[in-house]
Specification:
The complex is a heterodimer of chains A (about 750) and B (about 350). Chain A has 33 helices and six strands. With about 750 residues, chain A is mainly α. Chain A folds into three domains: about 160 residues, no CATH class; about 250 residues, Orthogonal Bundle (MetI-like fold), CATH 1.10.3720; about 160 residues, MetI-like (MetI-like fold). In chain A, the strands form three sheets. Chain A has a two-stranded antiparallel sheet. In chain A, strands 3-4 form a two-stranded antiparallel sheet. A two-stranded antiparallel sheet of chain A has the order 5-6. In chain A, helix 1 runs antiparallel to helix 7 and helix 21 crosses helix 26. Chain A is globular and about 85 Å long. Chain B is α+β, with helices and mostly antiparallel strands and about 350 residues long. Chain B has two domains: about 220 residues, P-loop containing nucleotide triphosphate hydrolases (Rossmann fold); about 110 residues, OB fold (Dihydrolipoamide Acetyltransferase, E2P) (Beta Barrel). Chain B has eight helices and 20 strands. Chain B has a six-stranded mixed beta sheet, sandwiched between helices. A five-stranded antiparallel beta sheet of chain B has the order 13-12-11-14-20. In chain B, strands 15-19-16-17-18 form a five-stranded antiparallel beta sheet, with no helix packed on it. In chain B, helix 5 links the parallel strand 7 and strand 8. In chain B, helix 3 crosses helix 4. The longest helix of chain B has 18 residues. Chain B is elongated. The chains are: A mainly alpha (about 750), B alpha+beta (about 350). Chains A and B meet through helix 28 and helix 29 of A and strand 6, helix 2 and helix 4 of B.
Chain lengths: ~750, ~350
């Protein structure tokens, strides 16, 4: 019945990619188009002959950019194997050779020839002066590159890699190439910048002079002066990690080990960090404790103390980050606390331990890896946080803001930004590495999902009282802070004129209708729509890349899988500021020229948020029994058909969750965005930061409030569509129910 | 079951020196040779970790052999992935697609085999009919009982008319009563349609009940191949004897061999039995607990240590000079007291010679 794919001579996928390559080479404009490809102005503006819009083939025909000519044989060669069988050795050989050569040559010429002719002197020395130049690659080049890549992967598959599975090999190849291009290449480029001297040469001395700068490692604060940014960041991150872990644990204990009724409310709080732009907490703290904040004023009036600027610096940033990241720690710890098997605790109790002894000797030790995990997450988040230090930092320099000021400030020192970014990256990667290497093997989560009939014991008294106290105070504080945000958006001028007004909303979001239709008059609309547009473009791509990667990681085994996993999850540990700096350093010049476009924002979101999609995918795919895939394969479906017809439908909740979360995260991101926005593509968050810098707090807070409610609506819709319990968790699959 | 559209394309399976190595040095299957005749039900039996499931998955194409050749029919499929092999499999967990109805599950494979939609549906219905699930088309798997889910899984595999049908511990998720029923159903369908079936289990009783031939595996290799009776009555070694049914291993001495009859000595007790090609010297006997008789005229001396009443029979632990022996007797009316000195002899066709050690 079944005909083996290896015996046919029809290769639809191969034909598709050959055609794609030819279209890229002969039809689409080879170079990037400044006004945007999708306006299609190029179609009527001189294409295909004008050398700005011409496809590669037309350029060569007109005697220009002749170095593109060697790509042609690599595009022609695959035509000769179309009639061959897959098991024919020449089939794979031709595809591998032409794909590898084409791809490598395309990249080599891209790096070799830049806007000033040859990019390297030895090339000029070898070939003489070029007398020509080229710009960033466009869609034509991209399509040809993809074509070469997938010709290559099909060749590899035909040689028998991964059982000759074209889909899996191509997916692996695709993910590797895009991660290399948009994560590793920019980081590498940034590292190189740390060694560039002012006159363009390379020197290790430059790196060391910037690295051992006093502003980075100074220990002045020990005797009253200022400390270096690296120590500040480290100290802050350790404090935040510790505080968020303690608070998170307190909330987790309240929810799982007490008779507390409003558990759902506490759980709902976990959605806060997802929908809150990171600097909003800082703004609310200013309203409370700033120089003209309500608490400050109140204390000043009643006690008669002169208001101070104590908030600006370590205290403010610490409070803001602890508020912002405690829900993250809670989210991690609730799983850990619930994961301790009740029967272990019951066993301890039957062995004559009282509740306090049980908690101290059994429950707490079992939670230890989870606590360390929560600490490291808080540490990484604090290190990477950019918004709060920017708003509240004052003279307290931390790495992420220093990087920003090194790039945008008066100093404009790319080398210093690169060195600072390396230090920051070193800290977060170390934490990330610790988390994986040390905790990966140490999960004590003992609940298996199968009938563990026990019940978690309540907290012992001497623990319950402080826990309730801490959780209660902090919970109330969180609510006040969020209330402040909403309330503050209606106040005319905080601390000066306390009358209520809609003024800020009107300034930001006024709409009028005239004869030309709706007129979006408010000052925020531009950035608002850009944000929605960019976030909506990024979300499906993020989800797709994330889920395909998750599929490869959970369902396939291949050589180098561990490195593959590490590489794809790495971008989780790369702080946004580092991504931002590395992107402007890497994508400002050919061959990939993206700065100032919307694409660079979309791309940065995809790779910033990809780990979210990967995690969501892994979490729900590991709930699906692997025998589902295997039975599909033995029933004659190939791996692509299995992915599409079995895995994807079962992952619908995970897909939706990944879509919504990447959308929302794209809307709240600031750290990478602030480097990448341009006049044409301004994002909501960077617009708000701009307002804050102009001391226009009213508008900033009104805009933030609007964002929070928009995102609340989006997440709420997700909850309704997917259903509360179904996100990422399905229970009865794999035919467990045996008794009928 | 007389009128059905499902036919058999049964083909033999042949393993030629097949090995499977996981990672660098974990040998799951070590150079096995195996012939499965067309239309036969062959069971792979062994303790967990013996390589039986890996062997099955290599037939399916879910694992690729590290070396050696696998043939299905006369075609070399060693390098062919699962998608391209004409083999289907019933999984331990059934692996029904939870988002598809019963009919969609059963026609899933037919859709990929190039049948038009309506034809695929008809064939799927015929398959459901065959396993006795007519009219369950639109149910979801979660709405079926375990036994019904299992039958859907069988139908889904059957309708493809595979050259070989594979079962991976198909009964282990069913409760004890249902097992006997389902196992008889599987055997009946296999015999009616003349299918080639390879069946994996770790339950020796299940293997004895359904198989034409049993392959006992141990430590990644084949310990013995034979019909159920052959394995039970004439195990080749201590491992097979003990794995299929229970067996007492009694050390003995082969005194002399005449033709194919050997005379052995246990203490002062002499006994004659088939020599199975062995020569005089130390050896061992494998004896089923039920094939020992207590209180015979001839035999070796022993003492009752423990007596247990289990309803249909008596179980005795008996202390002999060479160690403890487990004996089962049908006589429950006159139990023997612990401490009693007795003589133990063999029932006819009782003991089997196996290599000593």
């Amino acid at each position: 019945m079944r005909k083996a794919a290896s015996e046919t001579t029809a290769h639809p996928i191969l034909i598709y990619w050959i055609i794609a390559g030819w279209v890229g080479y002969f039809i689409l404009p080879w170079y990037g188009i400044e006004d945007g490809f999708f306006r299609f102005e190029w179609l009527i503006d001189g294409w295909p002959l004008d050398d700005e819009y011409a496809p590669a083939a037309f350029l060569i025909a007109q005697g220009e950019k002749l170095w593109l000519a060697p790509l042609l044989p690599a595009l022609v060669a695959p035509l000769f194997v179309l009639r061959k069988r897959k098991i024919d050795p020449s089939y794979s050989r031709v595809l591998i050779l032409s794909g590898a050569f084409g791809f490598a040559y395309l990249i080599a010429q891209g790096f070799g020839i830049g806007i000033r002719g040859f990019s390297y002197e030895w090339l000029t020395a070898l070939f003489g002066d070029l007398g020509d130049r080229q710009f960033g690659m466009g869609y034509g080049a991209m399509l040809v590159a993809s074509s070469f890549l997938f010709l290559f992967t099909q060749g590899i598959a035909a040689r028998g890699a991964i059982n000759g599975d074209v889909f899996v090999v191509s997916a692996i190849g695709g993910v590797i190439v895009i991660v290399a291009t948009f994560v590793f290449f920019p980081i590498a480029k940034m590292l190189i910048f740390a060694f560039i001297t002012e006159d363009g040469g390379y020197s290790v001395g430059v790196f060391f002079s910037k690295f051992f700068d006093d502003r980075l490692w100074g220990l002045g604060c020990l005797w009253g002066a200022r400390c270096g940014a690296a120590w500040n960041s480290l100290f802050l991150a350790v404090l935040v990690g510790f505080l968020t872990t303690v608070l998170g644990l307190a909330f987790a204990l309240v929810v799982t080990r007490s008779g507390f009724r409003a558990k759902r409310v506490v759980r709902a709080l976990t959605v806060l960090p997802i929908i809150t732009p990171p600097f909003v907490i800082g703004l609310a703290l200013i309203l409370l404790f700033g120089l003209s904040g309500s608490v400050t004023q109140f204390v000043a009036e009643t006690v008669g103390v002169q208001p101070t600027r104590w908030l600006y610096g370590l205290p403010g940033v610490l409070i803001a980050q602890t508020l912002a990241f405690t829900p993250i720690a809670f989210l991690v710890l609730i799983g850990v606390v619930e994961g301790v098997s009740p029967s272990m605790e019951e066993a301890a109790q039957t062995l004559r331990a009282n509740r306090w002894q049980t908690f101290r000797t059994v429950s707490l030790p079992l939670m230890r890896p989870g606590l360390a995990n929560a600490f490291l997450l808080g540490f990484i988040e604090s290190m990477a946080d950019f918004g709060n230090p920017l708003v509240l930092g004052g003279n307290f320099d931390v790495l992420s803001t220093e990087i920003f000021f090194a790039i945008v400030g008066a100093q404009y020192d790319q080398g210093r930004a690169a060195v600072l970014a390396m230090v920051l990256l070193f800290f977060t990667l170390s934490a990330f590495y610790l988390q994986r290497a040390w905790l990966g093997k140490k999960s004590y989560t003992t609940v298996t999902g199968k009938g563990d009939a026990g019940v978690h014991p309540l907290m012992p008294k001497r623990l319950a009282i402080p826990v309730f106290l801490v959780a209660g105070v902090w919970g109330a504080f969180t609510i006040i802070v969020y209330g402040m945000i909403v309330y503050g958006s209606f106040v005319e001028l905080w601390g000066v004129n306390d009358s209520l007004t809609f003024k800020h909303y009107v300034t930001a979001f006024a709409v009028s209708v005239n004869e030309n239709g709706i007129h979006w008059r408010g000052s925020a609309w531009d950035s608002f729509w850009t944000t929605i547009y960019i976030a909506a473009a990024a979300a499906p791509l993020t989800a797709a890349v994330g889920l395909v990667t998750a599929y490869l990681l959970t369902r396939q085994s291949f050589a180098g899988k561990n490195a593959f996993e590490f590489g794809t999850m790495l971008s989780f540990a790369i702080p946004g500021t580092v991504i931002g700096v590395s992107y402007i350093l890497a994508f400002n010049v050919p061959p990939i020229e993206l700065t100032g476009t919307g694409i660079i924002l979309v791309v940065s979101f995809i790779f910033r948020n990809m780990p979210v999609g990967v995690r969501a995918g892994i979490a729900s795919m590991s709930q699906l029994d692997k025998s589902l895939d295997e039975s599909s394969l033995t029933l004659g479906a190939n791996s692509w058909q299995t992915f599409r017809r079995v895995i994807l439908p079962l992952l619908r909740p995970a897909i939706l969750a990944a879509l919504v979360f990447s959308f929302v995260r794209a809307m709240t991101a600031i750290s990478a965005v602030i480097f990448l926005v341009s006049a044409r593509y301004d994002m909501a968050t960077s617009y708000i930061i701009g307002r804050v810098e102009n001391n226009d707090y009213g508008l900033a807070i009104a805009y933030s409030t609007t964002l929070i409610f928009v995102m609340l609506a989006v997440v709420g819709m997700l909850q309704i569509i997917v259903g509360r319990t179904q996100i990422g968790r399905r229970t009865q699959f794999g035919g467990g129910g045996t008794n009928g | 079951m007389a009128e059905t559209r499902i036919k058999s394309k049964a083909a033999p399976v042949s393993f030629q020196g097949v090995s499977k190595v996981f990672g660098k040095d974990v040998v799951a299957v070590d150079k096995i040779d195996l012939e499965v005749e067309a239309g036969k039900l062959v069971t792979l039996l062994g303790p967990s970790g013996c390589g039986k499931t890996t062997t099955l998955r290599m037939i399916a194409g879910l694992e690729m052999a590290s070396s050696g050749r696998i043939l299905i029919g006369d075609k070399d499929v060693t390098r062919l992935p699962a998608t391209d092999r004409d083999v289907s499999m019933v999984f331990q967990s059934y692996a029904l697609f939870p988002h598809m109805t019963v009919l969609e599950n059963v026609s899933y494979g037919l859709d990929f085999s190039g049948f038009p939609k309506s034809e695929a549906r008809d064939r799927a219905r015929a398959g459901l009919d065959l396993v006795g699930l007519k009219g369950y088309d639109d149910r979801l798997p979660s709405e079926l009982s375990g036994g019904q889910q299992q039958r859907v899984a069988v139908a889904r595999a059957l309708v493809l008319e595979p050259q070989v049908l594979l079962f991976d511990e198909p009964l282990s998720n069913l409760d004890a009563k249902l097992r006997r029923q389902v196992r008889e159903d599987i055997r009946a369908i296999q015999q009616d349609l003349g299918l080639t079936v390879v069946y994996v289990t770790h339950d020796q009783e299940e293997a004895l009940a359904v198989s034409d031939e049993i392959v006992v595996m141990r430590n990644a290799a084949i310990a013995q191949i034979g019909a159920p009776r052959e394995l039970y009555d004439a195990p080749v070694d201590r491992f097979v004897a003990d794995f299929i049914g229970e067996a007492n291993i009694i050390p003995c001495e082969i005194v002399s061999v005449e033709g194919d009859v050997a005379e052995i000595a246990i203490e002062d007790y002499r006994y004659r039995l088939a020599s199975r090609g062995m020569s005089p010297g130390p050896a061992a006997l494998a004896v089923r607990p039920s094939r020992l008789e207590i209180g015979t005229a001839h035999g070796f001396a022993a003492q009752i240590k423990k007596a247990t009443y289990v309803g249909v029979r008596m179980e005795y632990t008996v202390e002999a000079p060479f160690g403890e022996i487990f004996v089962v007797q049908d006589d429950v009316q006159n139990p023997l007291e612990p401490g009693l000195d007795v003589r133990l002899g063999f029932a006819s066709a009782g003991p089997v010679l196996i290599p000593g050690g």
